[in-house]
Design a protein that fits this description.
The chain has 13 helices and no strands. It is mainly alpha-helical. It has one domain. Helix 1 crosses helix 4, helix 1 packs antiparallel against helix 10 and helix 2 crosses helix 10. The model has no long low-confidence stretch (mean pLDDT 88).
């Protein structure tokens, strides 16, 4: 592999990780003007168009069978409609920085699912990493005041929804493995995202939120377009392009930068406080995830 190919691949991963880190902030900005379902519908409607155009330009498109369509519809509901409902609704009250730290635990839940369902081995070091990351999450959610947890207060109301979204994405990732072995990543993601968008369209109509579009200001449209074009379109393409060019371990290692990006952007644009105790909790999460993930490869991106 030439240095140029490797550099381009790493640059694509860095781009994807950066925009995914900033996606939580863009979502909170959009939520100031429109409802969660409208944010999701616009974001993934744009994403479907971009993925579709790139897929048609770069690949020979194959039509899935009815069985594959049912499989993609399940993934679309879990990975797009339900997952985004959890995250976007959670972000109404949860801080963007807290969300980013919690989402970092997804590899923990993937490892647990592999152990519980697939019979994969879980070493003592990995088990210690899971415990360490779990303790880090408690510190981040409680903002260092662990006494609040003893009184049944688990951070902001949205923090619990964000926490639920992590194992949900782990389930989505494990279920996606079979499809990724048979389909190209771009085509599979296009079908999955399309089904997720269709389900969200039904939700949008049922909720009667079509009037939301008129509420968007220039800043709101900027946030939505950023989410659709960069986070749901180009980032997925770049991620899977990089996986084809360099080892998955190198691609996955850059994901540790995602919460750092989120913290920095949230401090600048949302004025969210930078608390030393939260950085400590975040460091525990990252170290715990590293212990669990050091011999694993990451196939699905976290957002």
């Amino acid at each position: 592999m030439s240095q140029r190919v490797r550099f381009i691949a790493l640059a694509k991963v860095a781009f994807a990780v950066t925009v995914w880190g900033a996606s939580f902030i863009a979502t909170k900005i959009a939520l100031q003007e429109i409802s969660p379902v409208t944010v999701i519908w616009l974001r993934f409607g744009i994403g479907v168009v971009i993925l579709g155009v790139i897929m048609l330009a770069r690949e020979k498109v194959t039509l899935p069978s009815l069985r594959e369509l049912a499989y993609f519809s399940l993934l679309g509901f879990l990975g797009i409609t339900f997952h985004q409902w959890l995250q976007v609704t959670g972000l109404i009250t949860s801080q963007a920085t807290t969300t980013a730290w919690i989402i970092t635990t997804i590899p923990i839940f993937i490892a647990l699912l592999g152990w519980l369902i697939l019979g994969e081995k879980l070493s003592w070091i990995s088990a210690g990493g899971i415990a360490l990351a779990g303790f880090g999450v408690l510190i981040v959610v409680a903002h260092g005041d662990l006494g609040t947890l003893l009184h049944g207060q688990f951070g902001a109301p949205g923090d619990l929804l964000i926490l639920i979204s992590a194992p949900n994405w782990a389930v989505f990732s494990v279920l996606s493995r079979r499809g990724l072995q048979k389909q190209s990543a771009t085509q599979m993601m296009f079908y999955v995202m399309s089904f997720g968008w269709i389900f969200t369209s039904l939700w949008l109509l049922a909720a009667g939120r079509l009037h939301d579009f008129a509420s968007l200001s220039t800043g709101g449209w900027t946030a939505v377009l950023f989410l659709g074009i960069f986070c749901s379109g180009l980032a997925y393409i770049f991620w899977y392009d990089a996986l084809k060019a360099i080892p998955a371990s190198q691609v996955g290692s850059l994901l540790y930068l995602e919460p750092i990006v989120a913290v920095a952007v949230a401090a600048m644009l949302l004025q969210e406080p930078l608390l030393v105790v939260e950085f400590f909790g975040g460091a525990l999460i990252l170290f715990g995830v590293w212990l669990v993930n050091r011999r694993r490869t990451l196939e699905s991106p976290p957002d």
